Amino acid sequence: MAKASAASSANPGAFAESGADLELVGVTKRFPGFTAIEGLDLIIPAGSFFALLGPSGCGKTTTLRLVAGLEEATAGRILIGGTDVTTMRSYQRPVNTVFQSYALFPHMSVLDNVAFGLRRRRITDATSRAHEALRLVELDHLAQRKPQQLSGGQQQRVALARAVVNRPALLLLDEPLGALDLKLRRQMQIELKSIQQDVGLTFLHVTHDQEEAMTMADTVAVMNKGRIEQMGAPEELYELPRTSFVANFLGQSNLFTGSVVSTGSTSIVVDVGGRRIEIPRERAQRHAGEVTIGVRPEKLMLHTTAPDPHSTINVVGPGRVTDVSFSGVSTQYQVAVPGLGSLVVFAQNMVFGPVVSSGAEVWLTWSTDHGFGLADDPADSPRFASDTDTHTLAVQRRESLEAELEEA
After folding, report:
1. For residue 104, which of 159, 47, 34, 42 has the smallest C-alpha distance?
2. How would DSSP label each residue in 32-53?
3. Alpha carbons within 13 A on the beta-carbon side of 110
4. Judging by DSSP bridges, how do beta strands 301-303 and 361-367 pair with one another?
5. Which single residue of 123, 213, 269, 371 has CA 20 to 30 Å from 194?
6. How far is CA 198 from the centre of its chain?
7. Reported confidence tier of residue 310, pLDDT bands at 50, 70, 90
8. Enclosing H/E stretch for 255
9. Under CATH, what is the fold of the domain 240-373?
10. pTM as predicted
């Protein structure tokens, strides 16, 4: 892998001509009482837009802080552009960070905010470079305004310009769009991707928003409990999740568990509640024994009469519609099918009103090519149980105390 040169502490005035690659080797971070990251290995190619996606507490922000030098790794190495920066201070690393809070200086103009870092490094053409960065984010016409005179989206772009103007080898984005409204957030997703392509820097974007990660990133790594569950192109992760965590965190999935009853050269057949469901062999991680298979809700089609059997489709039903929810571009149906449980169906709104109403009898079909099989072993204890909330903990504690009192 080609490695771009990075600015170093020996030459603080140097600018990276392009992004540098990032490599984490066996990185572990332990805090008193728990381990946030355990033996993490990761390579991010130079010039790429990489998203680290996961729920709260999965270790993604800790990973970003380790790369930025804001936390010290318990074990392992961090390399940027081939240079080991593990023991370097944050200000010595060729890294800039864009935070959700923007962190702009309220008493300075937009131009001065962007030029601040350059002037501290005694860059001679700091003002012209700041104007160039503001033109990149299309805000040069507001250069003399104060941050409080800008909208949230404009402030975010100023924060981005301030980070990009330093030409860091690596730009870290910590949930940068979280404070924006939905429409502006989607607009900024497109702009961020465009800016990354224009400047050619390496972007590491940390987020819990699946749509945000898939919209912007070349590569997405789904993180869970301190390790990476799956990494790849957004389409690959969505269409071929390897674990139940990825299948349910990155969108929604209908998952079934059953025994493989037939294996061919191109497909396997799984018995689920007495129904035979076929999936392509190449889309399945396991081909024998008890397996978990799935299909995305938008791949399902609703039928009000029993469809004719066909070798290229799976048919389940009859089932009963238990809930209908309108969500704008689609309508979500909950369908209870005996032996399979409750299935979710997303149907695009091609006509006014729902296709079927709650209580209707329906059948569901989907192409065999749309199914996938997971690597999870159904015999294993659940690895992805939901975090217990404080209310549940309080109830459990109260019940435990009541039981102790009764025994006494």
Report:
1. 159
2. TTEEEEEEEEEEE-TT-EEEEE
3. 28
4. antiparallel
5. 123
6. 23
7. confident
8. strand 254-263
9. OB fold (Dihydrolipoamide Acetyltransferase, E2P) (2.40.50)
10. 0.79
